Structures are given as C-alpha cells and as structure tokens.
Amino acid sequence: MAAVELTDLRKSFGTLDIIKGVDLAIDPGEFVVFVGPSGCGKSTLLRMIAGLEDITSGELRIGGEVMNGVDPSQRGIAMVFQSYALYPHMTVRENMGFALKFAGIARAEIDRRVDDAAGTLGLGALMDRKPKALSGGQRQRVAIGRAIVRDPKVFLFDEPLSNLDAELRVHMRVEIAKLHKRLQSTIIYVTHDQVEAMTLADKIVVLRSGIVEQVGRPLDLYDDPANMFVAGFIGSPK
Ligand code: ADP
Ligand code: MG
C-alpha cells in the first residue's frame, strides 16, 4: 500500500487553477522531492497533503485512508517550514514538547521522546536555551525535532534549508539524509535547489504550473529527461 497517494488532485483559488490534476503514489520510507520553479504549486500541494489547504477535487490518501477534509492533527503528518516558527518565550525542550502536551501525552513519555530526538539531532546541550540564543542551523534542528517527537507517518518539509547560508545548507542536507536513513520515514521535501533534490531524493517529482512534468529517480531524470523543461531544470544547477 502507498504511504501517500494523490489521485487527480486539484486546487483552485477562486477562478485560478493552481494544482491541475496530480497523480502520485509514494511508497513507505521513500524520500520524495518536489522541484519546480517558484510559483508552480509546490507549497500548495504540500499544504493540501498537510490539510492546511482544502482540496478542490480529487482524492488524497495517507496510509490507505482517505484524508480529504480530515483535520491536520489527525493525518499522522508533521510539517517543517522554511521559517522555523519556534515559540520565542519557550526553551528548546518546551518548544519540542509543546504539541505533545496538547495531544494529552504523559509528561514522562514527552520527556523520553524529546530527549530521544534531541540526541538524534545533537541538541542535548541546548535544551534550556531560548530560540534567540541559537544559530539558524540550531533553530532549524529544533523545528525538525518538534516534528520527530510526534512520530509522524509522513514528514513534510517546505524548503527547510533555504534560510541558511550555503555552508550550513550543505551540512544540514547531510543531516537530513542521515535522519531519513535512521528513521526510515516517508518524507516529502520541497526545494527549488537542484543539488538538494539530486542528492536527497529516492524519487523526484518535477512540477510546472500545477502539473507533474516527470517523476523518476534522480539519475533517470538526469539521463533521460522527458522534455526540455525537465532537462533545463535538472541538468543545470544554479
Ligand atoms: P511554490 O511553492 O511552488 O513557489 P505556491 O504553491 O506557493 O508555489 O503557489 C502557487 C501559485 O498559487 C502561485 O501563483 C501563488 O500566487 C498562488 N497561490 C498560493 N496561495 C494562494 C492563495 N491563498 N490565494 C491565491 N493564490 C494563491
Ligand atoms: Mg513554496
């Protein structure tokens, strides 16, 4: 069974058709990267999967269950955004545990999960700090930690590294690859960075104007692009 399945998924904002019939099946444990130019609908598609945007038509399944209209908190997903959106007045530990507290999970279990994720992400020494006392990379780690503690079936990342400087971006890219290997989780990752897509993805989905141009393994897209658009996009790193 697919971990995530989109069937003729569509989204309009008023009279504007933004996502124009996307079909896609994502296997459990697969690292899938959505690429495409700015404005092609990557974030919108991710937000539809997360439940942050309504689905105009078509069907979304997560873990085999139809998720159209299901509350975001009930989808078994966790999303990491480009802006870290940490709570400034809370410590790292509190930031990471906050959503679990609201889900009614016991304190001891919250601490166990938070410590576990902190270990994975190398945050152990920073647990009592507030976000303003962290570097950009550390903040993004906390944001990822906040997702990990929820033990989601699917991680959604929307350009998580694009606010970081080039060196840190490369470092965090390696960290995310390790994380995927360790957790064996299903990941849908949006980026407009070709190198990030080529190095992280099991499968790349190339989007243009709300349509899937091609789906394939990175090297297959590179060697055998379906058209000039894909060739231009995959073949010419910025
Ligand atoms: P990407 O993430 O690929 O850069 P987006 O998914 O953010 O693209 O946006 C795709 C298109 O949808 C853009 O043209 C954008 O202006 C439009 N769009 C996104 N959100 C809204 C909205 N709430 N209302 C109207 N148009 C929107
Ligand atoms: Mg976007």
TrEMBL record:
Domain called ABC transporter: residue spans: 4-234
GO MF annotation terms: ABC-type maltose transporter activity; ATP binding; ATP hydrolysis activity
Topology in membrane: Peripheral membrane protein
Subcellular location: Cell inner membrane
An example Gene Ontology CC term for this record: ATP-binding cassette (ABC) transporter complex, substrate-binding subunit-containing
Superkingdom, taxonomy of origin: Bacteria
Key words of the record: ATP-binding, Cell inner membrane, Cell membrane, Membrane, Nucleotide-binding, Transport
Family: Belongs to the ABC transporter superfamily.
Protein name listed in UniProt: Sugar ABC transporter ATP-binding protein
Organism: Pleomorphomonas carboxyditropha
Whole sequence portion shown: 1 to 238 of 362
